[in-house]
Structure formats: structure tokens, C-alpha cells
Design brief:
By secondary structure, chain A is mainly alpha-helical. Chain A has helices at 3-23, 26-40, 42-52, 62-82, 85-96, 100-103, 109-116, 123-137, 145-175, 182-190, 202-210, 219-226, 233-255. The chains are: A mainly alpha (263), B alpha/beta (323).
């Protein structure tokens, strides 16, 4: 078995175990599913109410903004299920001292932390993102295959950024083990990606495109699908890849601070 | 030699903080760092097939040694060669060849059956299907787990869970297994099963390094005892030699046929009167031989019955901890 097939297989088993784990409490699963579904729809509902009251984001129709938010929420939903468990998992395991158990496995600790952090309980957030995305997609017209392919490639980059964020947050809790509010920082920062980039000033728009790649989470892939002109796509792609590389470097650096818990 | 460590040292920094409100506020801005020397130079050589009992008081450095040897922690300095690997430098390759059971940290997933956790380990260690099935069946049979591995872990007793932890640790057939307090909290029967299992696996060639506070584990399992105290090895030999080195004291219980008035025994002989007709001596054989003692009391006391016991292992170990 090749090395990569081994990793894929392990990820598959991790997913299966994550499903079995969450299904052990079916009632909790359905309640959690419903809560996540509703909670993630908050921003699109607010946007809808803004447009209904006659206000608007200049130059953007309601359907177009919904597309940006649908892509953003879909990416975030996938991130919640597949990546963000890493943060809770690391926080919990480092505090309890059970992080040691990941270190005695013959796999990269980061990968093990991701696999053991798969959180199918947040599946509702994928559905809310998917719902908004499909609704907005029904208004698309004349979208070419090339646009869809480019969208898919950029959506992968969007997920790359989500993964990078989760690794950075997970890294911080290795050293600052009581840092349970790290999510709030992410929520606050990432919410800038929910809206069209053109509503921000040029300097800020550049920051969220080329320094902290928030635009690529929702705006850039959605704009490509909508056929709207976007500048600096490839720079954003490169920045996203660099962001992921940076996150893994931060993880490695923080791992050096790991001291285990007393025996 | 399967494990060889040279001058392993581990130092870490902790911060001192007072308990008053003022001290708590002050600690937000200024903290006094304290350097802790967890290990002060550990030299340890272990042969293949040994069962080593690593003991010592809390905070002595046992778990730190175990964590360094299992690739979890980096030492501050020193060298280690375990099966040709340096654990902290070649962690991924190295840990594929070891197993570990932590009595206070479970590898099992709480809400699902142990079988799912075993499947997870199969994927982690890339164990081929056939080898996995053969090995799992053998372990399940040895530990009598067939009825339990499909029940959710949370419904198992501590003893049953511990047996499953051993299956998790042994599925990939590691030549070395590290055990950190594997019998903690278990009842007598569960301890017996676990000890029997360790002995059986050891007979098949597995090397075990065991830390424990249960001295019965040491007495019943370990070929060799390594005592760590204050970050250094203070004893490294067989349990028999440990008892020989420190177990100078004998507990002699004497049942009298006539009460002892209490004036003629040699001064310096320690004894307690359990009753009018029962005396309990604690004899230090480094001060007075057993023969001389027996001759002496036979002349002074009306002895009806007598029993002689060696000092128990716990007392001997306690003496070593206090050195």
C-alpha cells in the first residue's frame, strides 16, 4: 500500500469512527444539526432583510451577495466538520495530557489531530452553506464550464485557507492551553469574507486578499462563478498556499513548546 | 541491548505564584521562573525480553523517563538508543515499533465499541488484514474479551477497559511495550489477569518497561527493579538484591507461655507488647545476628511459639525513597 493510500484510508476510518461516535447520541446529533443549520443562516437572513428594506451593497444584487455568502458558509461548514475539530481536540488533549497518545502513533501529529478531530456533529453548517449556495446558483445564467472548473479550483483554495486557520488556532492552544476563545477571533476576522470586497476601502481589501487571504474563502470563487471581474486571483492563490505553509510552520514551532502533563 | 540511555537530562521551567489575591494579580505581569531538574542524568541499559520495574515516589522522574523513551518528550541533553532509534529524533519510525499503555490515559474512544478503536489502530499502523485478524483473535482469546469488544467502551468496567487498552498496545506486535501504572484502580482479579497477560507476552519475547506504585506488580512481574528518586537512578538490580541490600530488619513475633516482667532483655532490642503473652520484635540483623538474637531470647523468655518474617517490600522501598 502506498504511503498516500495509507493516509487516505486512515482518514476514511477516522471519518467512519467520527460518524459512529456522534451517532452514539442520535438526539444530540439532530439537535446540534438543527442549531448549526439555523445559526449559520443568520448572516444570509440579515442580508436578505437589508435588501428587502431597500438598502444594498453598491453594485451587487441580493442573489450575488447570497452566492458569496453561500460559498463562504459552505467552505466554513466543511471546515467545521473536517478541520476545526483539530482546535477543540488539541485544546482538550493538551490540557488533559492525552495529547501524548497522538505522539506515540507513527503518523504526523498534525494529521492525527485532524483525523481524531473530525466532527460530524457540525454537519448542519455544511447543509446551511449548501442550501444558500444552491439557492443563489439557481439565479446563475450563462455560466461556462470553464467558470465552474475555475470555481472548483478556487474553492479548494478556500478550503486550504480554512485548514490553515484551523492549524494556526490549534497551534496556539498547544502553548496557551486555556485559550478557549480562539474561535471568537477567527469568527470576527473571517466575517469580513462574507461580503463583496468592493464595499471595503482599497487598503483593507488588499489586506484581506493578499495578507490574510479572507477574500478567497467566499468572494473570489463566487465572483468567478458570477462572471464578475476579480483582480489578483493568482496572487490570492499563492498567498493561500503560503498561508497553509506558514500554518504548518507555526504548528511545528508550537510543538516544541509541548511539555506534556504531569504523570 | 534493546535500550541504552546515556546521561539523559530533562530540565523545564515552571512559574511560582502566590495564593493571595494580590499575588494572583501580580502574577499577571511578573512571574518568578523556577528551573526544575526532572532528570539529572539517567544511565539505563535494558536487554531484550526483560521486564523492568521503574519505581519511585511521585515526581521522581519515572514518567518523564518513560515519555522520553517513548518519543513523547525531548530530553534537554543526553543520548538514547532504542532498537537503533533515537526516540525523539526519529519519532514516526520509532513509535511504529513500540506499544504503550497509560493507566490514566485511555486510547479507546469512549462512546463506541473497542473494536472501532482497534480498526483505527489497524489503519494507523497499516496492519495487513490477515495479520490483524490473527493477532486480534489471539489477544481477545488471551484476555477473554470476545463478548466485550462490540459493546460501547463507556459500558465496560475499568478492568475490561484496561484489557482492551492492552489489545490496542499490542495489535501491531511491538517488541517493546511501555506500561505507565497499568494496574491503577483495578480489583485483585483484574490485576491478576493483566499480570498473567504481561508474563505470557514476555515469554513470547516482548520487553516491558513498567512504572507502578503497586509493589505487587514489581514483585510478581519484574526481573529487575530500577528505582528513580530526585531525577536519578538510586538502585538498579534484582528485587532479591534490593531486599538483601536494604531488608536488614526482621519482624519476630513471640508467643509466651508466661508473661514477661520486662527487665532482662538486652538494651537496644526494639519490641512492642501486643498483649501480655505476645511480643513483637523488630530486629536489625546488621546490629545483631538472628542466631544471637534467638539464643538471647531463648534464655530470657518462656517461648511457646515464634514466627519470623522479613520486612515487607513496601517498607524496604520506602527506606530507599527516603535516602
Amino acid at each position: 500500500m502506498s504511503r498516500n493510500t495509507g493516509y487516505l484510508k486512515l482518514y476514511g476510518v477516522g471519518l467512519k469512527v467520527g460518524m459512529a461516535n456522534i451517532m452514539a447520541y442520535r438526539g444530540d446529533f439532530f439537535i446540534n444539526f438543527f442549531i448549526m443549520l439555523m445559526a449559520e443562516l443568520f448572516a444570509p437572513i440579515i442580508t436578505f432583510l437589508i435588501y428587502r428594506s431597500g438598502a444594498a451593497f453598491p453594485g451587487w444584487t441580493l442573489e450575488e451577495v447570497m452566492m458569496i455568502q453561500g460559498v463562504f458558509l459552505l467552505s466554513k461548514g466543511i471546515g467545521y466538520v473536517f478541520f476545526f475539530g483539530l482546535v477543540d481536540n488539541t485544546l482538550f488533549m493538551v490540557r488533559e495530557g492525552t495529547f501524548d497518545l497522538l505522539l506515540i502513533k507513527p503518523r504526523p501529529v498534525l494529521f492525527m489531530s485532524l483525523v481524531s478531530g473530525i466532527n460530524v456533529g457540525d454537519l448542519g453548517s455544511i447543509f446551511s452553506g449548501l442550501g444558500v449556495f444552491i439557492l443563489a446558483a439557481t439565479y446563475l445564467s450563462g455560466t461556462t464550464l470553464m467558470q465552474w472548473l475555475l470555481f472548483l479550483a478556487l474553492f479548494v483554495m478556500s478550503l486550504t485557507v480554512m485548514l490553515a486557520f484551523s492549524i494556526i488556532m490549534g497551534s496556539t492552544v498547544i502553548k496557551w492551553v486555556g485559550n478557549g476563545r480562539v474561535y471568537e477571533i477567527f469568527e470576527a476576522i473571517s466575517s469580513f469574507g462574507l461580503y463583496p470586497k468592493s464595499i471595503y476601502g482599497k487598503a483593507f481589501a488588499n489586506i484581506i486578499s493578499f495578507i490574510i487571504p479572507l477574500s478567497i474563502i467566499g468572494f473570489i470563487p463566487a465572483a468567478v462563478l458570477l462572471g464578475r471581474p476579480v483582480t489578483g486571483i493568482w496572487i490570492s492563490v499563492i498567498v493561500s498556499i503560503l498561508f497553509l505553509i506558514l500554518s504548518t510552520r507555526i504548528w511545528k514551532m508550537m510543538m516544541k513548546y509541548y511539555t506534556s502533563a504531569g504523570g | 541491548m534493546i535500550i541504552d540511555t546515556r546521561n539523559l537530562k530533562k530540565t523545564y521551567i515552571t512559574y511560582e505564584r502566590g495564593t493571595t489575591f494580590g499575588a494572583t494579580i501580580k502574577s499577571l505581569f511578573v512571574r518568578k521562573p523556577i528551573e526544575i531538574e526532572a532528570l539529572k542524568g539517567i544511565y539505563l541499559s535494558i536487554e531484550k525480553g526483560e521486564i523492568i520495574g521503574l519505581i519511585g515516589p511521585n515526581g521522581a522522574g519515572k514518567s518523564t523517563t518513560l515519555k522520553i523513551l517513548s518519543g513523547i518528550l525531548h530530553p534537554t541533553s543526553g543520548e538514547a538508543d532504542v532498537m537503533g532509534f533515537t526516540p525523539w529524533k526519529q519519532r514516526k519510525k520509532y513509535v511504529a515499533n513500540i506499544g504503550a499503555v497509560f493507566g490514566q490515559k485511555s486510547q479507546l474512544i469512549w462512546d463506541i465499541p473497542p473494536m472501532d478503536s482497534f480498526q483505527m489502530n489497524k489503519a494507523i499502523y497499516n496492519i495487513p488484514e490477515e495479520a490483524f485478524t490473527t493477532r486480534l483473535n489471539a489477544l481477545v482469546e488471551m484476555l477473554d474479551l470476545s463478548r466485550l469488544i462490540h459493546k460501547p467502551t463507556r459500558q465496560l468496567s475499568l478492568g475490561e477497559r484496561m484489557k482492551c487498552e492492552f489489545v490496542m498496545a499490542m495489535l501491531h506486535d511491538p517488541p517493546i511495550v511501555f506500561l505507565d501504572e497499568p494496574t491503577i484502580g483495578l480489583d485483585v482479579i483484574a490485576k491478576e489477569v493483566i499480570r498473567k497477560f504481561i508474563k505470557e507476552m514476555n515469554a513470547k519475547g516482548t520487553t516491558f518497561i513498567l512504572t507502578t506504585h503497586d509493589l505487587d506488580d514489581i514483585e510478581l512481574l519484574a526481573n529487575r527493579v530500577v528505582v528513580i528518586n530526585h531525577g536519578s537512578i538510586v538502585f538498579d538490580d534484582s528485587l532479591t538484591n534490593l531486599m538483601g541490600k536494604l531488608g536488614h530488619k526482621k519482624i519476630v513475633k513471640v508467643i509466651l507461655s508466661q508473661a514477661y516482667a520486662g527487665t532482662t532483655l538486652k538494651s537496644g532490642l526494639e519490641y512492642e507488647k501486643n498483649s501480655e503473652l505476645e511480643l513483637e520484635f523488630t530486629l536489625d540483623t546488621s546490629q545483631m545476628s538472628l542466631k544471637a538474637f534467638m539464643d538471647h531470647i531463648a534464655g530470657e523468655l518462656e517461648i511457646k511459639d515464634i514466627s519470623i518474617e522479613s520486612e515487607d517490600i513496601e517498607t524496604v522501598i520506602k527506606e530507599l525513597y527516603l535516602i
